[in-house]
Amino acid sequence: MIAARRSFFAGFVSVVAIVACGAGCGTCRSTDGGAASDAASDALLEAAALADGGDLPARCKSTTAEAELPGGDTFEAGGAIVTGDRLAVAGSYVVDAVRKGVVVVSDVSLTKVERIELGDLGGGDLAPHLATCTGCAVPVVAAYAPSPQGKSLGTKGGTAKDAPQRVLLVSSLEGNRATLLVKVPQQGDESAAFDLLLGAKDAGLVAWDEDSDRVVRGVVKIASFSQGKLGETVLATPYETDADGPKLVRTEKGDVFLAFLAREAFGNDGGVLADADKEGAYLEAPGEERAHQWVEAVALDPSGRPRGAPFAVTPRGRGFASSFELVAAGEGFDVLVVDGAVERDGAGSRLVRVPVRAGKPASATTLAGGVAGAAAVFGKLVTFVDPSERTMLVALDPPHGVTREPLAAGGRFVAEVGGGFVSAQIAAGDGGPSRALLKRHACP
Known about the structure:
By secondary structure, this protein is mainly beta.
């Protein structure tokens, strides 16, 4: 996650590589993915080339304030939430080879900064996650507890024997401390991805992925919680789907949807690999074959149970969706997909917006090309970095105009505050160690 630390890739998907194509990929095969015409793709690649030449404008004109973050170049930014005139930014940093969690709380002018320490963390390089809800006065933070030594969670099917147990801690940030709301036990696997959706300050849904106990595939599970009690765990994806990377969204009508990455591996000859359930081999493993990945979604009831079968948001069995974000939009939601299908090596991925209304995906629009790693959404803007690790912004609504933001210094914007944005970035020390900084920028 070295590259991710330097560029602060928001969310829970590593920047490592797979954004454009799998390891060892030569010229990546292109796919329409329902995203854009060849002409539009060519125009976006041309825009990326202009960015290389420095010809794109910048929204942000000056830096008005900054505050130091802990951990120097080991700081990993998670998410941020603005509540009234307060800004909270979750992150992690390393001390003596041990990863610590922290929430930095400040006024939006960055003049008074406090830290809420979360202690040692589990979950690999995953930073803590912040969530809030309408009417909630304080945010909630979720992070994995350190794995207990020698503990494991057995499975019935034998496909994930001796899989380690992990525990997600969901806590309310009241005052200067984190107060535990609920513990969510899970079966550990290679992915530590999860999402949290609040319905009240002490109630909501948690979604995560883990290895199936019946077949050799990943599944997504959901559990509700309320007033300190965890509800029944629900299997939210079909056993025949290799699923991971879950995210939750609530529409303005109050409907809740789960979206996730679905995966189909194929060999170097372009043919789909043999069924891993029959062959006894995991679909996800080090040195794995390239794979088609697409986004699927399903409506949920209040307890997290699926309402009907999942539907494909991007074309099933096509495309190379490496990550995505969900944005509530009126009576539906939008899916922002980073699609690794590119025309040439080094061009980066493209950022695609797919509206979902009444449970059906509409025509997709390509917002930007030259994307490296995951993208993050705040307000009406999306932030990402290009293959040269320069920070970019693009508007969700037309005109989509991409801008390059040198004031963010290769970091990532994490919040929008009145008249400007806040970025998290690593600044090289002047003859000393690097520093992790929050910076507020004036961006008219």
